[in-house]
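Run: sequence + zinc ion -> complex structure.
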Amino acid sequence: MLRYECTGTDGKARRGRLLTARGEVHTPAFMPVGTAGTVKGVTPAQLVSAGAQMVLANTYHLMLRPGAETVERLGGLHALMAWPGPVLTDSGGYQVFSLAHMRKLDDTGVTFQSHVDGSQVTLTPARAVEIQRRLGADVMMQLDECPPGRADKDHVAAAVRRSIRWARLCRDAWEAPFGPAAARHSRQGRPQALFGIQQGGTHRDLRAESAAALVELDLPGYAVGGLSVGEGHDAMCSVLDAVDEQLPADRPRYLMGVGEPRDILAAVRRGIDMFDCVLPTRNGRNAQAFTWQGRLRLRNAQWAADPRPIDEACDCYTCRHYARGTLRHLFLAREMLGPTLVTIHNLHFFASLMAAIRAAIEAGTLDEDARRWAERLCPDQGPRA
Ligand SMILES: [Zn+2]
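>> structure
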């Protein structure tokens, strides 16, 4: 079963370990995103050497293609991905609300049109759990309603209450599964944890109501959802200011979909342990490299004959072997190695950022370090972290 151990604090920031049946994850941790069962452009061996400890896969994409039953027949998500480490799957809810053409939403679930073949698909709390049980992730997420960032307060309040009801139904399905599965286990017979998701937009009262109801369910972990939807850095920070008192100290806290380095620094300082985001992989495919001095756009002409690596201080595979000029050439020539190499560097950068954060918490210097790093990482966004 999944367990969280906090091994030290610095203010509200927590240094800890997530103990899973597939190994331990040092926290705070960043999870690269493997949307369709693959972290785009990199092999599991490259992921490991880039420092990834745990990855995320998207239930929405996998349930539509190749389908949860097919993934199960292939031996589950770990076999499909050839990734032996821990995996977290989201419930599919966020993608249904943000990507799909939604047909119907009520208390029983949500019906939408598949972007793959146009068929009607219904996702209920019990179905979301059943699909994730077939996929076999180590951590599954409850189905929640994700209102758009611009939703008014009544809409957000209704989504909070519906998400609380769905959390209870997901918990029931997880503890007393229908069919041959064992309680709290995947269809592959491995232990599987369920995390609840706090909603509530930027409304403090709704966030508190959401957290209190979820904590009553005594789940193995809790996520903060519905942020990074256009509310801005300061509004995100004020929601996170309350997280440390709202969520129990002995469970992991996961901030969903947040990955801007400056947001990660601010969130860790407010007590968050886990992150996921497509930024390192998506930006890597677009020739944008993250460094401690800000971002490099590798297509720019200024790098054409530059023999330096992306970052002279980085010891990733890409920086040990390739010049900026070579990477620019690979992108302009549309060679598939270009996106792979910059993705490797970006994943390594995010893993190094998290390792530096963990070391700073241990040293008790996070506040000072985070301010300094945020200034260097995002010189145009001001020092606040
Ligand atoms: Zn590098």
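>> summary
The chain has two domains: 3-277, 284-381. Residues 310-311, 314, 316, 318-319, 345, 348 surround zinc ion (CB under 6 Å).
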